[in-house]
């Protein structure tokens, strides 16, 4: 269709991280380590892995650590080089070399839709990806590249969907959808409605919108006119709902969905965060064997203790 290629990624990172207090009192939640790598770096790595190396972080107050992390650490690099520690030097330089990272402040927390709107000047009149830092997609499972390919083939916007238990759907934006045979794959659907955090008995499905989007630039004009919705915030879901009612896709309307069935880690939730750390560490060659041995003995001990109580 001659669509403009997607080259830019926007990562909202202005949240206060109150669920992780007191750890996030002075440390951005995005800097919490997943084993030994900050969550935000994993998200930037995901974008860069498919060529989206022009990255905008939408930040807020007390987020200076994010800028420092992606900046060059000259003193540390000099010390490591002098010690001949090439392995750690490469780790330090990796975050600096990943992408061309830019920053804009959101100012006040007015919702995800407002955070996306803050990216307008940087993005311009181009399609772009949005990656939420709380959602980590396992690098072994394809998602963002599929979404970009769909945008470039059909225009419009693309959201990622995953099925969740109905008891949890109130925590998410929820999608109603129908088949989209033009894509040639049953996991690609046309979104017909979106509802932000619906009541369990009013949800149109059990498919939740998760933190990966590829958006048409027409979303900016819609967001400009979107009134605060649920929680008194400007909801991206509400803007996408309006875009979805527009046809054809080339006008900035039409919303497709990709049903994701791979591995996803919600690092915005304390239990899911711990599960992600354990799961990913257990699969690493340098940590996995010893950790798995310990986990087996720990679980056996806990079960044994439970049986005696």
UniProtKB/TrEMBL annotation:
Enzyme class per UniProt: transferase
DNA damage listed as a keyword: no
PANTHER family: UTP--GLUCOSE-1-PHOSPHATE URIDYLYLTRANSFERASE
Pfam families, A to Z: NTP_transferase
Keywords for this protein: Nucleotidyltransferase, Transferase
Domain of life of the organism encoding this protein: Bacteria
CDD domains assigned to the protein according to its UniProt record, in alphabetical order: UGPase_prokaryotic
One GO molecular-function entry: UTP:glucose-1-phosphate uridylyltransferase activity
SUPFAM superfamilies: Nucleotide-diphospho-sugar transferases
Domain Nucleotidyl transferase: 8-276
Catalysed reactions listed for this entry: alpha-D-glucose 1-phosphate + UTP + H(+) = UDP-alpha-D-glucose + diphosphate
Organism field: Streptacidiphilus jiangxiensis
BP GO annotations: UDP-alpha-D-glucose metabolic process
Protein name according to UniProt: UTP--glucose-1-phosphate uridylyltransferase
Family: Belongs to the UDPGP type 2 family.
InterPro entries membership: GalU_uridylyltTrfase_bac/arc (IPR005771), NTP_transferase_dom (IPR005835), Nucleotide-diphossugar_trans (IPR029044)
UniProt EC number: 2.7.7.9
């Amino acid at each position: 269709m001659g669509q403009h290629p997607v080259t830019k990624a926007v990562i909202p990172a202005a949240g206060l991280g109150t669920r992780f207090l007191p750890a996030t009192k002075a440390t951005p939640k995005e800097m919490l380590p997943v084993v030994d790598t900050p969550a935000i770096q994993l998200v930037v790595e995901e974008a860069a892995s498919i060529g989206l190396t022009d990255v905008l972080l939408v930040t807020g107050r007390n987020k200076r650590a994010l800028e420092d992390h992606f900046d060059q650490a000259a003193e540390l690099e000099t010390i490591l080089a002098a010690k001949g520690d090439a392995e750690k030097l490469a780790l330090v330089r990796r975050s600096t070399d990943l992408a061309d990272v830019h920053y804009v402040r959101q100012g006040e927390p007015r919702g995800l839709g407002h955070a996306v709107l803050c990216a307008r000047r940087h993005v311009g009149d181009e399609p772009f990806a949005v990656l939420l830092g709380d959602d980590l997609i396992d690098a072994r499972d394809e998602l963002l590249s599929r979404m970009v390919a769909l945008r470039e083939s059909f225009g419009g916007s693309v959201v990622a969907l995953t099925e969740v238990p109905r008891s949890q759907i109130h925590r998410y934006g929820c999608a109603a959808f129908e088949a989209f045979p033009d894509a040639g794959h049953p996991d690609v659907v046309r979104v017909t409605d979106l509802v932000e955090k619906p009541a369990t008995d009013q949800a149109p499905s059990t498919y939740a919108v998760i933190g990966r989007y590829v958006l048409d630039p027409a979303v900016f004009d819609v967001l400009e006119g979107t009134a605060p919705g649920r929680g008194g915030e400007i909801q991206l879901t509400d803007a996408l709902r309006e875009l979805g009612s527009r046809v054809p896709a080339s006008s900035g309307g039409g919303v497709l969905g990709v049903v994701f069935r791979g591995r996803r880690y919600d690092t915005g939730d304390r239990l899911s965060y711990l599960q992600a750390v354990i799961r990913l560490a257990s699969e690493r060659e340098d940590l996995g064997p010893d950790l798995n041995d310990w986990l087996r003995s720990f679980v056996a001990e806990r079960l044994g203790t439970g049986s005696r109580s």
